[in-house]
Amino acid sequence: MLVSVIIPSYNHARFIEQAVRSVLDQTYPLLELIVVDDGSKDASVDILRSIQDPRLRLYPQENQGAHAAINRGLSLAQGDYLCVLNSDDIFHPARIERCLRHLDTHPVDLVCSWIEVIDADGQGKGVKKAWSNMRPGWSNKVNQPGFWSLDDFVLNLLSSNFVSTTSNIFMRRTVLEAVGGMRNLRFAHDWDFLLRAAAAFPCGVVEEPLMGYRLHGNNTITSNKAWMLFEACWVLAANLHRFEGNVLFPAADTGEKRVEHLRMFSRSVNVAGCDRLMWVLRTYIESGRAAGCPHPEEDPLEDVALRQAFIDLIEEPGA
Questions:
Q1: Domain enclosing residue 13, as ranges
Q2: 151, 189, 210, 231: which one has the fewest Cβ atoms less than 10 Å from its Cβ?
Q3: 206 and 272 inside one domain
Q4: Are residues 118 and 29 in the same domain?
Q5: 229-254, pLDDT tens digit by residue?
């Protein structure tokens, strides 16, 4: 079975060759590597052109954002299985082989793995074991159990993006065909995609650290806090409806079970103090749906002025 790996490359000349080599040196050889360079201004394209391997195809383009680079790569992919590797991360040598084995032996269509957190020099800083550790700081202040105390992929994904990165998504082609590609988000396109996928397909975790997630001074997530908070609220406002009435407050729950679920939900779903933004976003989206608009949640992603109006609702502490 052919595995397609997509690398969205952007200004990571320091890391891009290591990322590519980590794919080409996999223990599973039947793969294609599609690199979409999203308008890099450094030496990334020259480095990529110097790597000679028939499995590697390079597609430079003008800068359009990571989601667009990933979607272009996915549209070019021929594989039965699809995965993404960001240009500053690395795959561990047996990642593809182990993920394939998990899909073959478990009733799931998408998997992630544990993550080795590494620094700019590739030095290990710890292993993130899905939702069981390295949780968001706010969750450590909750004295009673939340969704993280349950062995449930979906509930924990609603609590936080424990998958952490598009580099940690490995899936059958049927998942992409059913839910579509990445949406126009700068920070949270992976979390949004995962929630859409998890609402439609069973997902699982390979309990081994099979990729290196690199933290360095130029990570995208450090660049604009207000925009990041807007996207976190947007992801929940746009996707909660997919889980209501099934994994969230199922009709079968009654009495104390229903009360306990309410308590766990309140402890587990957190918008970092941006409750007003979350409430307004949710009302805007649900109003559009009620009016028959096919995808009202995408309005703030495409309309710059509307998005900024939502971002302006974020108040800094003490303001």
A1: 3-217
A2: 151
A3: no
A4: yes
A5: 999 999 999 999 999 999 999 988 88
Same domain, 192 and 249: no
Written as one string, the DSSP assignment of the chain is --EEEEEEE-S-TTTHHHHHHHHHT-S---EEEEEEEE--SSSHHHHHHH---TTEEEEEE----HHHHHHHHHHH---SEEEE--TT-EE-TTHHHHHHHHHHHSS-SEEEEEEEEE-TT--EEEEE-TTSSS--GGGGG--S--GGGS--HHHHHHH--TT-SGGG-EEEHHHHHHH-S--S-SS-HHHHHHHHHHHHS-EEEEEEEEEEEE--TT-GGGS-HHHHHHHHHHHHHHHGGGTBTTTBS-TT--HHHHHHHHHHHHHH---TT-HHHHHHHHHHHHHHHHTT-S-GGGHHHH-HHHHHHHHTT---TT-
Indicate whether 84 belongs to any domain. yes
The residue count of the chain comes to: 319
Both 171 and 54 in one domain: the answer is yes
Looking at residue 138, what is its pLDDT? Answer: 79
CATH number at 123 reads: 3.90.550.10
Q: 204 with 257, same domain?
A: no
pLDDT at 25 over 70: yes
Kindly indicate the confidence band of residue 221, based on its pLDDT and cuts at 50, 70 and 90.
Answer: low
The whole-number average pLDDT for the span 54-76 is: 97
Q: Which of 217, 241, 274 is the last residue of a domain?
A: 217
- pLDDT at position 318 is 42
270 found inside a domain = yes
What pLDDT, on the 0 to 100 scale, is given for residue 218? 63
Total tally of structural domains belonging to the chain: 2
Question: Per-residue pLDDT for 87 more than 60?
Answer: yes
Residue 220's region, left for phi above 0, alpha for psi from -120 to 50, else beta, is alpha
**Is pLDDT above 70 for 220?**
no
Is residue 140 predicted with pLDDT exceeding 80? Answer: no
